[in-house]
Amino acid sequence: MGNVVNKDVDTPAVLKDVNDYPVVMYTRPSCGYCKLAKEILLEENVLYREKDLNLHKTMHPEDGMKYINGLIYHTRVTTVPQIFICGEFIGGFTELKKLREEGKLWSTIAKCKDQYDRKPVVDVP
Description:
By secondary structure, the chain is α/β, with parallel strands linked by helices.
């Protein structure tokens, strides 16, 4: 996703976003693993907030890269999808798939079920 320069990060905005909804997934349109992760969430009827990083960068040209750098700085991961459940970074597609296979996906989400408003969201920054 890019190189991180410490002075050009907006980690607080990322932390706010990942704590505003129980399941948040950062994506890019051309990402195959993002599509697979979305399929798992849809098959499991998990409602989530999708944050398209390309769209975010386009909609916020002045500080879009600071936000993306904040995400990278927080997770130490430069690929997508990046998935958060209850504000915690769980990883990407592989980790999501593992949670599902182990039957732990819904119990992980249940930790913050009171925040769950049952509406899927594609975020438009």
